[in-house]
Amino acid sequence: MKASQSLHRLARAATTPSTSRLSKLPILCAHQRSPYSTHPPNARLNLPIDYSTTPLLCHSTDSALDSPELPSHVKNGSTKRMNLFQAINDALATALTQDENVLIFGEDVSFGGVFRCTMKLAESFGSDRVFNTPLTEQGIMGFAIGVAAQGMRPVAEIQFADYVYPAFDQLVNEAAKFRFRDGACGRSAGGMTVRMPCGGVGHGALYHSQSPESLFTHIPGLRVIMPRSPLQAKGLLLAAIRSNDPCIFMEPKILYRAAVEQVPTTVYTLPLSKAEVLKEGSDVTIISYGQPLYICSAAIQRVEEDLGISIELIDLRTLYPWDKETVFRSVQKTGRCIVVHEAMVNAGVGAEVAAAIQENPDTFIRLEAPVQRVAGWSIHTPLLFEKFTVPDVARVYDSIKKVLEY
């Protein structure tokens, strides 16, 4: 009895700070709703991104239908204003409608998932085709590989990219190697698409902010895709589902509701492993993907006004296998290059792009400065200081000045 009472008192002491300990803790005033890092009130560069005016989103029907990658029947169609999660939902509904072999499953997907990307799909297509799984990423991936090997086109959702690590054995040793291992037998995990939200939102901390895309780009046999906008997400996701390669489709979660644009209502796909030149320029090439493209665009607008230069902006879209031809052509034109991504700098996508540029004789001899990388710091994501760990407008701006002054 005495031992039990002692343990009870010890537990209370461990969970209830003493008065002296409380006096040392920082006190938050009543009006301080959260201590998360924010933009300073007098910032010149690091201002909040205005998604309602950014040139990276199609704010009108004409701009949405103007893309040369869209077929003529889509250009003659209509558009609908969507955010990113609505565009993904539209793509999934289209895939389910057009191909009875498409299945969608994951944790909580039957009622829409954490971000509502699969909302109402179970009601429309039935629980045989859209259904919940147990909380086991390895099991989700193993099941996806099995049904893909039998000719189905599964779309597996990993609730957060941070949770994918238990499934790595299945992805690396089964999904990616299946067609090479089976050889002439013809079976593979082609047709399998793995969706996962990724990246920071400002307060995700250790387990809801990671950008692990470079880990997948080291696995031959997988395609790794990350869209920047609703229009891109719909076309690239449909292309991934129809692809005969296993695809990792990474969705920047901060854009689910922030990025809103006009999206064609007609069915369309966009090319995989093909980069897009978003803005042409002559002095510096900036290469990025996903949410940091908006940071780059804001930095470009400011630095072009300040310095009177011209900058080219490229969206990789597919991170592996990536489009070297478009990147090399741009660097041969500008002679200066910066790669920007949210994932930590060491062994990131930027390292591969920079190395490829400097290994290629035609681009290396044209370089006027070393290729720069602007990326996340090599640390875990801290809750209070998440915004300081990823690239911001000021860091991109300074990098542009650095390559110009070299």
Question: How would you describe what is shown here?
Answer:
- By secondary structure, the chain is of the alpha/beta class.
- It has two domains: 61-264, Rossmann fold (3-Layer(aba) Sandwich); 276-405, Rossmann fold (3-Layer(aba) Sandwich), CATH 3.40.50.920.
- 37% of the residues lie in helices and 17% in strands.
- The protein contains 17 helices and 14 strands.
- The protein has helices at 2-15, 19-24, 61-64, 72-75, 84-98, 121-125, 137-149, 168-175, 178-182, 213-216, 230-242, 255-258, 292-307, 324-334, 349-359, 361-364, 393-405; strands at residues 79-83, 102-106, 130-132, 153-157, 193-198, 223-225, 247-252, 260-264, 276-279, 284-288, 311-315, 318-320, 337-344, 372-376.
- The strands form three sheets. Strands 3-2-4-5-7-6-12 form a seven-stranded mixed sheet, with helices on both faces. Strands 9-11-10-13-14 form a five-stranded mixed sheet, with helices on both faces. It has a two-stranded antiparallel ribbon with strand order 1-8.
- Helix 6 links the parallel strand 2 and strand 3.
- Helix 5 packs parallel to helix 11 and helix 13 (292-307) packs across helix 17 (393-405).
- The longest helix is centred in the last third of the chain and has 16 residues, at 292-307.
- It is globular.
- The model is unreliable at 1-31 (pLDDT under 50).
